[in-house]
Amino acid sequence: MTRLEPETAERQPRGKSTVQEGRANQERDVKYSASTLLVEDDAEIGDLISRYLKANQFDVVVVKDGAAMDVALAERDFDLLILDLNLPGEDGLSICRRLRAERDLPIIIVTAQGEDVDKIVGLEMGADDYVAKPFNPRELLARIRSVLRRASAADPIEAGSARQVYKFSGWSVDLAAREVVAPVGMKVAMTGAEFDLLHALCEHPNRVLTRDQLISLTHGPTAGPFERSIDTLISRLRQKIETDVKNPKLIQTVRSEGYMFTTPVTRS
Known about the structure:
The protein has helices at residues 18-27, 43-55, 66-75, 92-102, 116-124, 137-152, 192-203, 211-219, 228-241; strands at residues 35-39, 59-63, 80-84, 107-111, 129-132, 165-168, 171-174, 179-181, 208-210, 251-254, 258-261, 266-267. It is of the alpha/beta class and 268 residues long. It has two domains: 31-152, Response regulator (Rossmann fold), CATH 3.40.50.2300; 165-267, Arc Repressor Mutant, subunit A. Strands 2-1-3-4-5 form a five-stranded parallel sheet, with helices on both faces. Strand 6 (165-168) and strand 7 form a beta hairpin. Helix 5 (116-124) packs parallel to helix 9, helix 7 packs across helix 8 (211-219) and helix 7 crosses helix 9 (228-241).
């Protein structure tokens, strides 16, 4: 087995390059020692992931099934859940659906290679991201940091901080607070991925965006080639902002090209 090493700058020369400085600034945006709950019934894989994340300054608790996960969640708070879908007892998809209804906990699902259906359904259930086995631990680490950055952006903002708000069709999207308010004045709960997608659409109204562009805008450099994930997010977002999901007016599908946000958007 390949030995895994933490990502540190200790082996680098004393003088930092511009790239290294940019990376360091980026990583300061993510909680180090982030508490992570890993639900994985394969002891070898669980130990591999746990050791790698701990070497990269994460606090990791490993459990083998949904029942043990519930106990761990009752005992303490976690910043992130890494959830294998193929579990004994309650399966990962059921757990994902249940947790999303109960709490706003970032979730990364782990699927078997080639199981596109699991990826689609997992995202529909509210997962924030996914990684397919077998995976490079560095890819998992990058996805974890990306999800945590999105989650940390939703932390309460300081009083007096500048607020940027998009408005469209009676809706408002507060970027600083990461809050979405419906025309009736009610806040609409969204996952980090859903909010990032809506943000991307608001920034590019009345313009066709391909799936690749949307993946890049919402996931950045950690994005994989799985275009159907955007289709799933679009479907989830439509369910929350469209009056008639079967006849969407705000997010239009442009055949063979992508999607268009077809409503005037203002920014204040």
